[in-house]
Design goal:
Blueprint: E1 33-37, E2 42-46, H1 49-52, E3 77-82, H2 92-109, E4 119-121, E5 127-129, E6 159-164, H3 181-197, E7 210-214, E8 220-225, E9 227-229, H4 241-244, H5 247-257, E10 266-270, E11 277-278, E12 284-290, E13 297-310, E14 319-322, E15 335-338, E16 343-346, E17 352-364, E18 370-372, E19 377-383
Helix pairs in contact: 3-5
């Protein structure tokens, strides 16, 4: 400022949102839609966008063009937030109004075109669908796998973000310990998301599982926990110390929740020295092995995916390079091999981010049912 004067507050903008009424009843429980994960057989009950009253017009400009087109990158990390809103909402109707207000703020006030979270959870244990996914209208996907949200700058491409409704730094915060409806819903969400992305919350020795994470701006974060709080990745108080203090317990609860199927994991070795960056045309090679399956399960094969995509700076869209089905809203594509195949090499033809995923396929000895082991393995390369 001129003359060395101290900087002063120049303007304050207040955003007041009137959330319209919906058909949600004034009880603790909201209506739900069942989301299925065919690979694991798990289901999750969520209050869909239609059920919490999302106005889908917010997602489009006056010409009908989508403001924030959906992109799809499988999650390698789960990130926990709080919404920093009030804690004294009285029932599911008021909680849904809070979700609509956050949606309006993100989509309209911030001009994002949609809500930034993958999902939200209220104090009553209701789980709300966040970011819009594949398809429109009837028949669309609910809680679409891999849809890129906007909850953590730099980390959105390759993570799922769940927001706890309220302010964990203020009085009245409902989740002071690892119990209660909000906690139970957070664990359910964590089990479902970790299960469908084959994310390991704990190492075999019980310590927090972590790995280097390649941000969308091609900057590495070393040793990022697979289940993290927002303040671990950006300069923020979110999700509050009360939530951060429970993340160790959350990792353990997710691990325990995945015991409904085989928790057999895979170890993956990168056979190219130098580890995580290379150039176009260089051969990248991997070798893997399954951990010993639990009693009653037998290893019958593996599935792998070479997920590749490129994102230009200052562009929210990505170009899919490998490891996806065809179409504008693709799914992750897996290749099945037998149990004797434990090596794969490839040479990327274009610059981008490439992550090699591998998971074990097991057969239950008595029922004959096939399931993927709960914990896959992955390794990312930045290819220039």
């Amino acid at each position: 400022t001129a003359g060395g004067a101290s900087p002063g507050l120049q303007r304050v903008t207040a955003t007041v949102i009137d959330s319209p009424t919906t058909t949600i009843s004034t009880t603790d429980q909201s209506p739900t839609q069942t989301v299925d994960d065919g690979d694991s057989g798990r289901t999750l009950a969520v209050t869909s966008r239609e059920q919490w009253g999302a106005n889908e017009k917010y997602r489009f400009d006056r010409r009908g063009r989508e403001l924030w087109p959906e992109m799809f990158v499988p999650a390698k990390k789960l990130i926990v937030h709080h919404t920093a809103t009030r804690n004294d909402y009285r029932d599911s109707a008021e909680a849904a109004a809070e979700v609509r207000a956050i949606y309006y703020y993100h989509a309209v006030t911030q001009r994002w075109g949609d809500i930034g979270y993958t999902a939200l959870i209220d104090r009553f244990g209701n789980l709300y669908e966040g970011r819009h996914g594949r398809g429109e209208g009837t028949g669309r996907e609910y809680l679409s796998a891999g849809v890129v949200a906007g909850h953590d700058s730099g980390y959105n491409y390759g993570s799922a973000g769940v927001a706890l409704l309220g302010d964990a730094t203020q009085a009245g915060w409902p989740m002071a310990a690892e119990n209660g409806p909000m906690w139970e819903a957070l664990v359910r969400f964590g089990v479902f998301e970790a299960g469908r992305y084959y994310v390991r919350p704990l190492n075999p020795d019980g310590t927090a599982a972590s790995s280097d994470f390649l941000r969308s701006d091609n900057v590495w974060t070393v040793g990022m926990r697979n289940v993290s709080g927002h303040k671990e990745t950006n300069n923020t108080a979110c999700p509050g110390n009360a939530v951060m203090a429970l993340l160790d317990e959350l990792q353990g609860a997710i691990h325990s929740g995945l015991a409904d199927t085989s928790r057999t994991g895979v170890t993956l070795a990168n056979r190219r020295p130098g580890g995580r960056e290379t150039t176009v045309g260089t051969t990248i090679a991997y070798e893997w092995a399954a951990e010993q399956p639990e009693s009653g399960w037998s290893l019958v094969g593996y599935e792998y995916c070479i997920e590749g995509w490129y994102k230009a700076s200052r562009n929210i869209n990505i170009t899919y390079l490998s490891g996806y089905t065809s179409g504008a809203q693709p799914h992750q594509a897996w290749t099945r091999v037998d149990a004797s195949t434990t090596r794969k090499s490839f040479s990327p033809a274009k610059a981008g981010q490439y992550t090699f995923h591998v998971r074990a396929v097991l057969r239950h000895d008595s029922s004959g049912a096939e399931r993927r082991g709960a914990y896959g393995a992955r390794h990312t390369y930045l290819v220039r």
